[in-house]
């Protein structure tokens, strides 16, 4: 007890054998920079960052300063080929990282992604769906797999149909007239796209049926008295 009867406060060094005090480190985190492609204009834009980041973007990536509704931002010039966009965005992002900036680079712009990585990921995704379908034990589990395949907007089959439709539209730019009497496979892409739409609708119908079957109540068995008919009624 301290003089006057009040309890004494413990020393800050109590419980610390070395009697050392620790301070949190002073992190020098610069403002976050996001480099991505604007889906409306297909321009590669860089948002955020400091004046130092702006200098790096302009010097290493050939980004241009542009006014925006929330302040200036940076973008690559119009008309650049996709590979040039990726090259400049990747170079700028690594220069920013080297200078201590926090950067998010859109994976679609990253030149250092392994070739075929997206295709390999898609193949793994399809293999996973096949495994889920093979091991489904309830209607709900099967319905979830069928939804991934045929969902109206982001389903695999509607997305594949969109590719076929775009190929069919592009056919007119380079298609040569097929010899008389020979079928023209390219011109049949339109009807193929229609068949894919019908297949998606059929799969969605099966999805709905599978989902309903998971909640269908079991049919109640008739009472034993109703099943056991008296012998007299059987003889009538």
Structural overview:
This protein is α+β, with helices and mostly antiparallel strands. Strand 1 (33-37) and strand 2 form a beta hairpin. Helix content is 47%, strand content 8%. A 5-stranded mixed sheet has the order 3-4-2-1-5, with helices on one face. Residues 1-6 and 230-236 have low confidence and may be disordered. Helix 1 packs across helix 2 (82-98) and helix 4 (139-150) packs antiparallel against helix 6. The chain has 8 helices and 5 strands; from the N terminus they run E-E-H-E-E-H-E-H-H-H-H-H-H. It starts with 32 loop residues before the first strand and ends with a helix.
Q: How many alpha or pi helices? A: 8
Strand content: 5-15%
The value of Rg in angstroms is 33 Å
Order of helices and strands: EEHEEHEHHHHHH
Mean pLDDT over the full residue set = 79
Describe the main β-sheet briefly. Answer: 5 strands, mixed
Widest sheet: strand ordering: 3-4-2-1-5
Which segments are poorly predicted (pLDDT under 50) over 5 or more consecutive residues? Answer: 1-6, 230-236
Structural class: alpha+beta
Spatial shape:
extended
Number of strands: 5
- As a percent range, the share of helical residues equals 40-55%
Give the SSE layout.
Elements: E1 33-37, E2 44-48, H1 51-61, E3 64-66, E4 73-75, H2 82-98, E5 103-105, H3 117-134, H4 139-150, H5 156-174, H6 189-213, H7 224-227, H8 231-235
Parallel strand pairs: 1-5
Antiparallel strand pairs: 1-2, 2-4, 3-4
Helix pairs in contact: 1-2, 3-4, 4-6, 5-6
């Amino acid at each position: 007890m301290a003089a006057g009867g009040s309890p004494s406060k413990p020393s800050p060094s109590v419980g610390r054998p070395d009697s050392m005090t620790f301070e949190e480190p002073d992190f020098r985190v610069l403002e976050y920079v996001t480099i991505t492609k604007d889906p409306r204009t297909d321009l590669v834009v860089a948002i955020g960052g400091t004046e130092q980041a702006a200098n790096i973007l302009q010097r290493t990536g050939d980004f241009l300063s542009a006014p925006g509704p929330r302040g200036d931002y940076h973008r690559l010039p119009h008309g650049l080929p996709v590979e040039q966009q990726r090259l400049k965005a990747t170079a700028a992002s690594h220069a920013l990282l080297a200078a201590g900036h926090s950067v998010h680079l859109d994976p679609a712009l990253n030149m250092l992604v392994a070739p075929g990585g997206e295709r390999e990921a898609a193949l793994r995704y399809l293999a996973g769906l096949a495994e889920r379908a093979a091991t489904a034990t309830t209607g709900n589990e099967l319905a979830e797999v069928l939804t991934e395949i045929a969902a109206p907007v982001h389903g695999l089959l509607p997305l594949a149909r969109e590719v076929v439709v775009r190929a069919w539209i592009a056919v007119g730019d380079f298609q040569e007239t097929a010899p008389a009497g020979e079928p023209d496979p390219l011109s049949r892409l339109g009807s193929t796209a229609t068949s894919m739409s019908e297949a998606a609708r059929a799969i969605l119908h099966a999805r709905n049926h599978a989902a309903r079957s998971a909640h269908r109540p079991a049919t109640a068995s008739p009472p034993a008295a109703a099943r056991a008919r008296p012998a007299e009624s059987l003889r009538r």
